[in-house]
Amino acid sequence: MMTEKTQRQLQDLEKRNQQAMAGGGSDRIAKHKKGNRLSARERLDVLLDPGSFVEMDRFVTHRCTNYEMDKNKVPGDGVITGYGRVNGKIVYVSSQDFTVIGGSMSRTQANKICKVMDLALKNGAPFISINDSGGARIQEGIESLGGYADIFTRNTIASGVIPQITAIMGPCAGGAVYSPSITDFVFMVKNSSYMFVTGPDVIKAVTHEEVTKEDLGGATTHSQKSGVAHFATEDDKHCLLLIREMLSFLPANNLDDAPILPTNDRPDRIVENLTTLIPDNPKKPYDMLAVITECVDEGYFLEIHKNYAQNIIVGFARFNGRPVGIVANQPQVLAGCLNIEASRKAARFIRFCDAFNIPVVSFVDVPGFLPGKDQEWNGIITHGAKLLYAYAEATVPKVTIITRKAYGGAYIVMGSKLLRSDVNLAFPSAEIAVMGAEGAVNVIFREEIASAADPVKKRAELIAEYEEKFSNPYVSAELGYTDEVIEPALTRKRIIDSLEMLKHKRDIIPAKKHGNIPL
């Protein structure tokens, strides 16, 4: 029978739990939830498997006494931390509560976040951070800044060891923006989240520019213009469910393999539509997304960075149940040329896949690097080298399919055999050459064309001759740079054959502390 003392203790525990669960109070929570926003705890309910969340440090409070802060203490101190499961697998989480002192970062809050980050790293499980904070807790001074630094350090150490995902679900400004930027993927919510180093008021005071929070650092801005955000979601629930979907493609850590899921899509399925999808006219665009979805399991492709640098496509899909990272040129945008933004986008994605043992499948239709003064002045050489570096460095299985154009340096950069790609396939429509026929003829036969009786006719004849000789996949096949020229309808089968053949691949690179990627 329960004693009176035990009963009092349990009642006290219940009271303390209720106080902690109440956050900043019902009024603040109600105000926070306007505009289809969820509370900090509701967000974890959506993200995690039902009933799986275990909270840690629920009763922790700050220790600041400045400015009467000792009279403003709430259990948990504005962040909920702990662990739970997503699709049955352990993940560690933190969720800032804006209703408690604006979710501001205190020394205590940082300690709570660092504790679960350390556990995530020790146990080899993903870490997911939900950010909703007014920034550093000014009343604590430099202590709060020290808390940010501790989190940044852990983000850096954990990079490439465990997947790190950030959901921006409210304000994220000043020093707070650097932790998300180090993590692998950043999700934002349209019209309710924003990120910037300096806000509109500071910008107006210093540069006299007037800009809204949304235009400066909203989800649309960062998913389209800066590339800081990988996803711009419709609301809190959409954001959290999308994170769950992404995690289904990822391993728990860098020593595990990504989860293989059962599929009813036959590995030897013939992809008849690819036979007619590539236009006969090499100047006519087509949708590379259609090529991808025709080939992958159930036609499902989780595109990442969808609205940024749309001339290149990256994302996750499965072949015979096995997750792969896909990189593909998009002929519908800038003819599929590589530019600064596309190079950065693809390089970062390839390095993530390589860190977490996810094979890379590349679909290539690239006429070259985008020409222009702005590209050169802004460092296309360095940024293009990032993509080259990422492909050459990657030791995961790499399969490349050239659907049409593959010219010059861009051919080399896009997962060519010359950069240690394992299997290189090409359609009969592939044009693998130093440059396009028209450009090549203009260089090689400049004088001959100029002196011809009919320069236009002569030029057309020479272009046709060059195309016959070089604008095909067979010169490359003769040299062994292309392993097989395949019927487009066999693409899915050949990719799956290749991945199956490469599943035990081991590649050796020289021992070193780390490389010096051109940043």
Describe the protein in words.
The protein is α/β, with parallel strands linked by helices and 519 residues long. The protein is 39% helix and 17% strand. The chain has 21 helices and 17 strands. The strands form 3 sheets. Strands 10, 11, 12, 13, 14, 15, 16 and 17 form an 8-stranded mixed sheet that branches. Helix 3 runs parallel beside helix 10 (236-247), helix 4 (107-123) packs parallel to helix 5 (142-158) and helix 13 packs parallel to helix 15. The longest helix has 18 residues, at 4-21.
Low-confidence runs (pLDDT<50, min 5 residues)? Answer: none
For this structure, the CATH topology of the largest domain is 2-enoyl-CoA Hydratase, Chain A, domain 1
- Oligomer state equals single chain
Any idea what the CATH architecture of the largest domain is?
Alpha-Beta Complex
Helix content: 25-40%
The shape is elongated
- Strand residues, percent: 15-25%
Tell me the number of structural domains. 3
Distance between the termini: 68 Å
Structural class: alpha/beta
Highest CATH level, the class of the largest domain: Alpha Beta
What integer value in Å does the Rg equal? 27 Å
Number of helices: 21
